[in-house]
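Lay summary

Proteins are chains of building blocks that fold into shapes. Our project writes down both the chain and a compact code for its shape. Here are two examples, one after the other.
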Amino acid sequence: MSALLEVEGVSKSFGGLQALNLCTLSVESGKVTGLIGPNGSGKTTLFNVMTGYEPVRQGTVRFKGDPITNLAPDRVFKLGIGRTFQLTRIFPRLTTMENMLIATQHREGWLGSVFRTSASLGPERDRAMELLQFVGIEGLANQPAGNLSYGQRKLLEFAYVLVADPDVLLLDEPAGGVNPSLINHLAEKIRELNDQGKTFLVVEHNMEFVMGICDSLTVMHQGAAIMTGTPAEVRAHPKVLDAYLGGEDGEDDA
């Protein structure tokens, strides 16, 4: 498998804080890659750099072999990189369906889709409902998104990103704060999409979740990737086990 998304020698600081320190990462096409490490190790900062939300002066980000370092987020998105956020970014006063329609018309900018005529939105509605059914919240299509549970909001954001049919999906703590039944449901959907050829990079503290869905794991510490291996290799590594997995129970204390 070839690398679809690569980070090479990226450094990023905020004042005196070194958030990323010559960080290097490779995401293989068609694989589910996990990114783990305690809070403050640089995982979300790395996501922000890869998707254009944080500029860098050192290092390179490549997608399909082409440099995309410091491209604006909308350009990164249009190239085929979708992402979710640690704190969901939805429109709480709009319905679940209206949120999805915004996603279908992303290239038109902001709220254009909501104010188009109902007839002209037929194909978009069909696509939106198909994805809501895929993640299992189609029954909430007409509910204000602000009324959804935290886990349901995570599923909505997941469906929202899928509208654009990205080549790679970056998921930032998709299982964080989500009840176990929805976590299992989300894992099933990630596996199903991966079986269809989708590539994933997943930041997650829930070790049971990430160990169960990932082909490989990269461990971050103090802004750098310190090792990459299969879940079994990572779990068995004494340094990783002691520092990041919290011992035999596999729980991260961050």
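And here is the second example, written the same way.
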Amino acid sequence: MRLFVALDLPWELRERLRALAALSIPGARWVAPENYHLTLRFIGETPGYQAEEIDHALAALKAPGFALTLAGLGTFSKGGRVVSLWIGVERNPSLDHLHSKIETALQRIGLEPERRRFAPHVTLARLDNVPEAKLAGFVQANNLFRAPSVPVQHFTLFSSRLGKEQPVYTAEVEYGLATT
């Protein structure tokens, strides 16, 4: 199984993001609204016995719920080429705390530490040879994006299956957060 831990987004927030994706950028492959999520930890290919250990480790976590606010818009580059368009997340100590607890729990059961710095975001589109002027115009027109805060009351272990057009994400287990 190919696994990752993420925050699933409520449908009303997905709709706000989908409205942004309705704008046209040549060369953009927009993420389907049902695939919008905020990755807390990518795990990758995992044998069945280890998936069970991951489930037990995540189920034992105790962390408080919190409010999440999506704000801002930007791009990620790889090798000097812009490869994705994302919506940012306002920094939040509770989100950072949850991320840290997940990382620690997964390392305790033998997973390698995450090498990338935690940069919370929701991917809107994958980009391939997008005209720079079009992309710059889109980012400039939408970089003040801000959605109303939403309560986060759980995090989810997802499996991912690569498809022809887009990956298919399946929520495997939800883990509740403490109510404040």
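What can we say about the second shape? The CA atoms of residues 89 and 120 lie 6 Å apart.
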